[in-house]
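Below is one such protein, fold included:
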Amino acid sequence: MLMRLINHVILQPDPIFPKLIFSQVFPGMIQTLPNSCPQKSSIRAQGLLWGCSLLLALAGCGGDSIERTVVKGKVTFDGQPLATGTILFVPEQGTVGAPVQCKIENGEFSSANHTSDKRGAVVGPNKVEITAYKESGKQIKNPDGVMEAEVIQYIPAKYNTKTELIKSISSGINDYSFNLTP
């Protein structure tokens, strides 16, 4: 069907073909389309427009075909459960898919508990970035000139911006323990 679409829309435009596709996708609405196009250039433009519209509609249909799975586990820092933080699974180069971020609470995380994105991590090699913030005990001026507590990222860079953590995520539930040191 895709090759037929490319052939008819781009290589050999046919004013009837877009109507055929449109009538299959939106039955009962074909009568709103014009019966003919006066010039060959407008036929090509109309065919290209309908073809692009169809491809965009099809691209939006269906779900993410990337294989994803649940990642969960525990995170400790200096031997203690990490009170709060985030863990980010970033697919390595060559692995297709968007990163997934999970909250760490009381030293535990799970992609199944993510409030807005429950798709899970992409199957394959993923970099793992772990961050956590705490108050430094200092007061600083914010951009509005108001004094407030300074908050710092206290997990070493080797676990986030310069991560050395890589996990090969497989199908099924993946349970990991990350024991971070200062």
The first strand starts at residue 68 and ends at 69. The longest helix spans residues 40-60.
